[in-house]
Amino acid sequence: MQSLSASSTAGVLLDLSGAAILLLAFACLASKLFNRYVAYYGAQSVVLAFAAGTSAVAFHSLELWILAVLTLLIKGLAIPFAARRVLVRRLALKRDAAMSTGLSTSLLAGGALTAFAYLVTRPALLPHGTAAAAVVPLSTAVILLGALAMVVRRHTVAQLIGWLIVENGVFLGAITLVATFPFIVEAGIFLDIVAGVLIMVVFVSGLTRQLAEASATELRELRG
Amino acid sequence: MTALAILTALAPLAGPAAALVGARARASAVAQAAGAAVALGAAIALLTELTGGRPLQGWDGFLYADSLSGFFLLTVAGVTLLAALGSVSYIAAQEDSGELGPFQVKLYFTFFGLFAALMLASLEAGNLGLLFVLVEGSTLASAALVGLEGHARSLEAAWKYVIISSLGVTIALAGTLFVFYSASALHPASNLGLTWPYLLAHATALAPQSLRLGFLLAVVGYGTKVGLAPMHTWLPDAHAEAPSPASAMLSAALLNVGMYAIIRFLAIAHARLGGTYPRAVLLSFGFASIVIGALFMVRKGNFKRLFAYSSVEHMGIIAVALGFGGVLGLYGALLQVLSHALAKSVLFLASGDVSLRYKTREAAGVSGLLAAVPVTGGALLLATFAVLGSPPFGVFLSELTIIRAGFARGSPIFPLLLLALLGVAFFAFARTITATVTGGPPDPVPASPYRDRAAAAVSAAPLILGLAALLVLGLWIPAGLDAVLRQSAAVIG
Is A219 part of the contact surface with chain B (CB cutoff 8 Å)? Predict the structure, then answer.
């Protein structure tokens, strides 16, 4: 398990991809339209697939190539496509009104979390000059931003997208920090994500049918 | 041994197989119970071979079982058997009354068996990444059980459960990543470096900062599944809304699987970072859970929510026991895992019978259980006192061990605080349950929901079995079990 240097071509490309992934997470946090959530998530996954491809070239790893292709097909195309068809269009979702804070507050919180991510992961944890030292803070920030989106957004579809962003953050960390988890594990993670999205879509559709609006603000029967 | 391990994990799939070929509730449930019995038998056989012997290792480190895994396999397989027995009458009665349609019955058994198989398999996984995959899989399978009844409340509970747990487990994956990274100085092969025996054996070479972060993330992540406060918020809803045998599986099996994952990370962290840091983490989450659990139990209402908060409290006690550490603390923690699992299975299964008869899950709507349904009422009362730590049941012994471990560690503040909180929990819990058990039965006495006397007898079987096992644990710990517990405590360190 060799480590990439930050100044190598692959290191620079990974760093840039990481930055783009973080910006797309911010874009998602700043948006109010369901269509955009899905679009930003899809774009983020495509960049992630590119990052995995870069890593595959740098490490000469066939497994990473397969992961890059899987990421592109499943996270970049299939999930956004399905989310748009089954959730956004069929449930006629347009503007997301169910937020517990204003957009500017959540963006400020996002900025603070990004700074926090650097604070936690930078010192002593990672050797200087490696690509991981540049990208892991970014991936940690993406994880935190996804979690933030899940907290401030009360709509079930928005929470689902938030979880997928967290997942992307972990994946970005995995391909730079340790090259890759064992392939069977990565494949299993993909399977879990697909099964998770499927089962969540079933719940969201069922809840929407029952509550007319699948907003977690309406979910207040169970308390205490 | 490998064959036994595979049999343990695959036997619960008998239920799904029966349901998928078109069997109705009763036949599927019998197949499920038979599968669970085979799994329990295989787990016991495996545990006997593991005690005193070498751990089972195979498939590039993906398969790993030592006495600690064996002990948890025994617990989970035992709970699965009780819950599967409980399903026989419960689901059949729901099918007869039309509350569950044929498709829902099929879904129930498909996901019940899958859930059990995934939990058992995750206890046999040596690879921490594979552990994540299987635990997340079991979350998804059990979410389907929570949402089974399909009305707004159960879908809401299922949504809350699946989204919070998935986020939690993903955080645990990030923790796994940092633990994996902490080993990078060793340049392990990618399959091997993520297996926990390898990490434990090379613990001294792990990078401490990265391991520290990884351990904390793993405790937060898997702690979400365990129901440690403040990540417990999904737990009462999911336990209250799932069909009762599935609630028993959640409370008595799933939470323990999460705890098993935490214990694995604890062993690695303990070996590298020493006791102070991991203990501080576990004591904080543990006491937070006990406080939250005990306070919310004071509220009267839905009795399944009461049991759920009691699970939060008990998981907190186990975390505190792990935090106390030492042979005594670890021994007590493991004994508590087993005795809590038995008591909570009996409670949830009895509550299933009560809600079938009284058509309510509110404690206020139930009275005179002892007079109306002596077996269920008696089991509910005995299991209540058992779970609250009264002698002569197993929980008394384990909690006594844990408190002794606390005093042995020096400062008397923590064990005294624990005793006080246990007192609050005792009062709150017993107050609600004794009110439902005593008093005159309603007029007219609720009719039996079961088709015939045989079905009613089957519904009582898991209650009696569970209580009997609990009583044995309180009076006398079999020599074999004692050896297993000691050996498992030594694994943790």
Answer: yes
